[in-house]
Every structure is written in C-alpha cells, then in structure tokens.
Amino acid sequence: MTANNERAEAIRWIRAQMADYGLTLEELEAAGCFDQPPPPSPPPPVCYRNAQGMSWDGQGEMPDWLRRAVNAGQSKEFYRVG
C-alpha cells in the first residue's frame, strides 16, 4: 500500500468515525484536537564541562569523566561552567 493510499484510507476511516459518532469539525476543534503541541522544554543547563566537550548538568550520578578527574585530585569546581 502506498503512502497516498494509506493516507486516503485514514481519511475514510476518520470520516466514518465522525459519522458513526455524529461528530462535527467544530466539536473536534473545540475539544482541542487540532491545537499545536506545546514546545519541548529546554534542556537542563550544563553545569560542568571538560576540554573534550563532555558535560554534566549536576543531576544524578556524577559521570565517569568527572569522577576520574576528582579521584585524580582535580577539583570538581575546576570544570564548572559560568
């Protein structure tokens, strides 16, 4: 089945469902069926970054690259961004 055929079949199914349940386009719009989804939330800010560009937001378990640096005697604050 081609994409155009699948699309046409989906439209036929939607129209049949609307007819079966007595739904109108206005009712679907009022129910929010055509509202745009909310924008994605921004990524968490980077708190720590090394010279290779690896980063950590400070949440959860400390990543291996930072743990190795701290275990080698480097301060975690050395990698703090901003």
From TrEMBL:
Keywords tagged on the record: DNA-binding, Plasmid
The yes or no answer to whether the keyword Heme is present is no
Query: What is the superkingdom listed in this entry's lineage?
Result: Bacteria
- Write down what this protein is called: DNA-binding protein
Show where the DNA-binding protein H-NS-like C-terminal domain sits: 48-78
Q: Per the UniProt entry, what species is this protein from, by scientific name? A: Cupriavidus necator (Alcaligenes eutrophus)
Keyword DNA-binding attributed: yes
Listed GO molecular functions?
DNA binding
